Amino acid sequence: MGVLAEVYEKLNTCGKCGFCHGACKTYKKDGAEYMVARGRVQLIKALADNKIDADSDYEDVVNSCLLCGECAVACPSGVKGHELVLAARRDLKLRKGTKPFAKSLVLKSLTKPGRLSFGFSFFAGPGKKILKMIDGVQFVRGIDVLSMPAAKTPFSKQVPEVITVANPKKKVAFYVGCFLNHSLVDSAHSVVKVLTKNDVEVTVPREQPCCGLPQYVYGDFESAKAQGKKVINEFGKYDAVITACASCASMLKKEMSELFHDDEDYLPKVKEFSEKCFEFSEYVSKELDTTSKLKNDTPTIVTYHDPCHMVRYNKITEEPRNLLKSVPRNKYVEMFEANRCCGAAGLVQAFYHDLSSMITADKAQNIMDSGAEVIATSCPACMLKISSGLKLKGSKVEVKHVADILASSLRD
Amino acid sequence: MLSQSVITKLKSICGEKDVITSKIGMYAYGYDGTMLEGSHVGIVFPESTQEVVDLVNFCREQGIAIVPRGAGTNVSGGTLPSDGSIVMNFARMKKLLEIDLENYVAIVEPGVVNWDIQETLAKYGYYYPPDPASWKASTLGGNLGESSGGPKCFKYGVTRDFIYGLEVVLPTGKVIWVGGRDFSSEPMYDLTRILVGSEGTIGFITKAAIRIQPIPEAKRTMLAIFNTPEDASQAVADIVSAGIIPTTLEMMDNLIINTTEDHCGAGNPRDAGALLIIEVDGHPGDLEAQVETIGEVAKKANSKDFKVATSAAEVDKIWLARRVAFGSVARVKPNYGVNDITVPRSNFPKAIAAIEKVKKDFGVTIGTVAHAGDGNLHPLILFDQRNKDEVDSLHAAEMELCRIAIDLEGTISGEHGIGILKKALLPKEFGPVGMDVFKKVKRSFDPQNQFNPGKLIDL
């Protein structure tokens, strides 16, 4: 039974009522029983009981889960489907290693800043030039690759290590995260602007190790732990650590403790570290008073998309909304199903792109139906995916980070 | 196992992706909402009436039985596959074809989920009243198969009462439209009402004309707490005698009050014997007098407390415990058997007393929630599926509950269907003549016993 023995009791708690069918986006799009939490849980249990094999169909069932956590909200018996899928991914990793090669390459590259930096820099220059010469590759697997921003120089090397302010009231370290560091660099600058304009001294440590979430969610706990330790070594010395990526925030604040649950010696250090990590909007709402400084002449209709890691993993929902509402002359509208997954879900968008893009299309439609001119969110992966989804529908709605909206309302 | 040539033919009918014979598919379609397991030879996903017709014809020629399925949430084994059968999953045939507000009709395909219909209709200020607890998951085809009810069915009726007409594929492969499109009375035999609740044994529904209606302008939600379930059931009888037909009249007993408190701390008193959630809807001007009367009735039935929600948040708070009721019992035992015995409202207090006796006689733990307004009880029998003694006691207690229902002039199934689990009890409820008529109906539609064989009745 292997590692599945640890969750066997939880697998048994599923009473097969099927109430998760309404909550699961992959089921809603596919319609097959094994594409919903009940089916996934029953199959994981069947594998643990040696009733089925871990064949490629089984791998697809386990790897196509968005880990959005919506099934857990819907389950009357308190089964957390996404946690059981995570256990199954761990089990698969131990049985077979990380497959396919492309996934293994991506997960490894994320842990190697040099390789990552080179990759994005190459993409920003020659890479895009080559793509432009090939007709019909605007969208690759539902992602608008040609419009995807890529930094020739990572954000962390564009700014001084310590960004000082005249009268520092607080000091924080900025954990940038891979996407903001190499792709959505403007949003990283926005984060710094919002903080410094509010008299916060920001340190951007030169070393920015990957948080370990990508490796963790594909069951490579060893690599994830190594990353976790690197992060704590670099960032542990600061009083507060801010990140503006919902996924990184979730790893730093919550999931790292789950990852290290079996390491009694190190766990207290992880918990102590997690206590001082904050998601951007959480920190701004809690520690700063931005409202009086915000100015805006252009009335704009804004809506907000809840990243899964914000709403379900960390239950941060009001802070970003309140910040958006605090900008003068902004009209905030709530969209239908604001808190449902956008379909990005880490590497699901790469390996199950048809499914992922159908889910994104729903999100894009809901945004368009809301009448919003700007959709704000708190996760760079959601931003890129939603932006592609909107473009595929011919929509002109702009996609921004909450930090971008605040930053543009803070005048010099 | 299906031969390669049969698989190829099936794929030529409904497409490559709509035929599944993988090992995980075999496993995942071998169960439903019950504890039972079955085996089959493959799954097909038709996406149009024509595909259903072609599949039915081909399977008939091959002598393959077909088991229809929606989301597979039923709790009576109605969608459990039978050996050698093909599962026909309607989940990908899910278009909402037409909404006709002028005539209060919507035309839908069977795979559309009840909740998705509600969300679309809500944009126009309309809704479809049948609201089974599984409504966020269950398909309309499944609701039609079981004639599902829900909390609102006391005032409005069950699925059967909201169907104008149906497009049906018969076991011969012929397609008929039964009933009307936007009216409910018509000459000749009422085939619509025979088909609804027939659990896919005589025809496969491929379109349904459902009755929709405007969302009521106003509603009021009340909570009444009682010392004993007997007092609560007296209040139920008195509310209806006072000439009020609430939209919902839900009851929870002491055990459920406590498990829901453990689960979410809804704020209900743990020493209460039972509580009632009462909702009335209609024109705003009509509701105040009804609320007042219900308050007086509750007081006369010795209620400990009576509250009227004054905000949306308070409405949510009142409903919170009821919403988590089923799942909350998992804290006591990992599994529960859900029953849906239904008795005439006048016999409701007797049914409550009889459940108390079953607890003692069979040594089982039972928590009861009920759609009290129409005498529909859900005694949840708690057990651990890994403990054989507990499973045996569960089955014995369930049979006893069904016998009680029949003795009290009720029915063994108010809304969950018969499937496999309750088949053996039907002769007791309907007698030999009744069973004979049922068999003749089944044979006249499906002489080869190709559609969902072994469900409802054995030929």
Q: What would you say this structure looks like, in words?
A:
The complex is a heterodimer of chains A (412) and B (459). Chain A is an alpha/beta fold and 412 residues long. Among the domains of chain A are: 2-96, Alpha-helical ferredoxin (Fumarate Reductase Iron-sulfur Protein, Chain B, domain 2), CATH 1.10.1060; 289-408, Rossmann fold (3-Layer(aba) Sandwich). Chain A is 51% helix and 9% strand. Chain A is built from 22 helices and eleven strands. In chain A, β1 and β2 form a beta hairpin. In chain A, α14 (246-259) packs antiparallel against α15, α16 packs across α18 and α20 (353-370) packs across α21 (380-392). The radius of gyration of chain A is 21 Å and the shape is globular. Chain B starts with a helix and ends in a 14-residue tail after the last helix. Chain B is of the alpha+beta class. A seven-stranded antiparallel β-sheet of chain B has the order 15-12-14-13-17-18-16, sandwiched between helices. In chain B, strands 5-6-10-8-9 form a five-stranded antiparallel β-sheet. Chain B has helices spanning 4-14, 23-28, 49-62, 114-122, 140-146, 153-156, 191-195, 229-241, 254-264, 284-300, 312-328, 348-362, 388-407, 426-445; strands spanning 19-20, 42-44, 66-69, 86-89, 96-100, 105-108, 126-127, 163-169, 175-179, 204-211, 213-214, 218-226, 248-253, 274-282, 305-308, 335-338, 365-371, 376-383. Chain B has 14 helices and 18 strands. Chain B folds into four domains: 4-91, Uridine Diphospho-n-acetylenolpyruvylglucosamine Reductase, domain 2 (2-Layer Sandwich); 92-214, Uridine Diphospho-n-acetylenolpyruvylglucosamine Reductase, domain 3, CATH 3.30.465; 217-328, Alpha-Beta Plaits (2-Layer Sandwich); 333-417, Alpha-Beta Plaits, CATH 3.30.70. Classes of the chains: A alpha/beta (412), B alpha+beta (459). At the A-B interface, α3 and α4 of A face α2 and α11 of B.
